[in-house]
């Protein structure tokens, strides 16, 4: 990852970085270790990363118009918004309601 943009969680426990190659990394600042290997989540550079107020979620935004929502503790993708589709990964939402095509 080069051309990195970064953010810290409100409690300082995690740091997130987005690269110009579409990868996103989440780092545990107490151990210095990656929460998981960087994920190629976007098709373009990732200049926007921000944590939720409670630090449990991360949002990354890219030049290709995608926004990815992450579980900060595991590094798993919790949702994805593209210019024409919304996807969420929530066990409390029925599977048939987790993917929505948006009118363009």
Notes on the protein architecture:
- This protein is an all-beta fold and 104 residues long.
- The chain has one domain (5-101): Thrombin, subunit H.
- The chain is built from no helices and eleven strands.
- It has a six-stranded antiparallel sheet, with no helix packed on it. Strands 1, 2, 3, 4 and 5 form a five-stranded antiparallel sheet that branches.
- It starts with a strand and ends with a strand.
Please outline the helices and strands.
Layout: E1 5-8, E2 14-18, E3 23-28, E4 33-34, E5 39-40, E6 48-51, E7 57-61, E8 67-71, E9 77-82, E10 85-88, E11 99-101
Antiparallel strand pairs: 1-2, 2-3, 3-4, 3-5, 6-7, 7-8, 8-9, 9-10, 10-11
Q: Which properties best describe this structure?
A:
single chain; 104 residues; mainly beta; Thrombin, subunit H; five-stranded antiparallel beta sheet; 11 strands; globular; disordered C terminus
Task: Sum this structure up briefly.
This protein is mostly beta strands and 104 residues long. The protein is built from no helices and eleven strands.
Shape: globular
CATH third-level topology: Thrombin, subunit H
Contiguous helical run count: 0
| CATH arch. level architecture | Beta Barrel
């Amino acid at each position: 990852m080069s051309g990195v943009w970064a953010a810290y969680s409100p409690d300082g426990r995690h740091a997130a970085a987005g690269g110009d190659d579409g990868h996103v990394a989440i780092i545990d600042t107490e151990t210095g270790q990656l929460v998981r290997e960087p994920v190629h989540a976007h098709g373009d550079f990732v200049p926007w990363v921000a944590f939720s107020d409670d630090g449990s979620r991360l949002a990354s935004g890219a030049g290709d118009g995608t926004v990815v929502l992450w579980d900060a503790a595991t590094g798993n993708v919790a949702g994805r918004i593209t210019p024409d589709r919304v996807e969420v990964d929530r066990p409390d939402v029925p599977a048939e309601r987790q993917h929505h095509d948006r009118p363009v």
